[in-house]
Design brief:
mainly alpha, globular
């Protein structure tokens, strides 16, 4: 399926992994796909959301409120370790981004939908995110497109219908059906 993705859609999927890392989540969910879509506001499908007032920063705040901090941060907080304070101390001593894993330092892994994962390697997709990706293929076929673009990814997230991404849209006052129709118009 991945070979049908446009370059920008591939960047969105890779961006979802980065979004999950930045939020310290050990999984990639529909909310991370939504954030990655909003990370390319120049794409017509993402522009639908931006024009409706939902930009990346707003959605990221909503995800933080809805889902909370990553499991590592919560576990450390439970034993009295403030992960943000640790990060600040390390960055003050070694420079900004000292704890960030760089792409060239990541181990080489094969496979796209890995069932396992770690903070360093590929992060696994939730069942809802996998379903949204599968539905993006179905949306592409339904619209008789020869490829899967960012708009199809957003339609897949919308069609999945029950994940945190749709909750972010609803909490922002957006009607998923109206967003769907607007995205379909951008796809022709």
């Amino acid at each position: 399926m991945f070979e049908r993705f446009t370059e920008r859609a591939r960047q969105v999927v890779a961006g979802a992994q980065q979004e999950a890392r930045e939020l310290r989540h050990g999984y990639i969910g529909t909310e991370h796909l939504l954030l990655a879509i909003l990370g390319v506001p120049e794409d017509p499908a993402a522009a639908v959301l931006v024009e409706a007032g939902l930009d990346h920063a707003t959605a990221q705040q909503a995800v933080r409120r809805l889902v909370g901090p990553g499991d590592d941060a919560a576990a450390l907080a439970a034993i009295g370790v403030n992960l943000d304070a640790v990060r600040e101390a390390v960055e003050s001593a070694f420079g900004e981004g000292a704890l960030d894993v760089r792409a060239e330092e990541e181990p080489k892994r094969r496979g796209w939908f890995r069932s396992g994962g770690s903070a360093v390697g590929r992060i696994p997709f939730t069942a809802r995110a996998k379903k949204a990706l599968e539905l993006s293929l179905r949306e592409s076929l339904r619209l008789k497109s020869g490829e899967i673009g960012v708009g199809h990814l957003l339609l897949g997230v919308l069609r999945e219908g029950e994940g945190p991404a749709v909750r972010v849209l609803l909490d922002h006052g957006l009607d998923p059906g109206a967003v769907r129709r607007a995205v379909e118009r951008t796809l022709g």
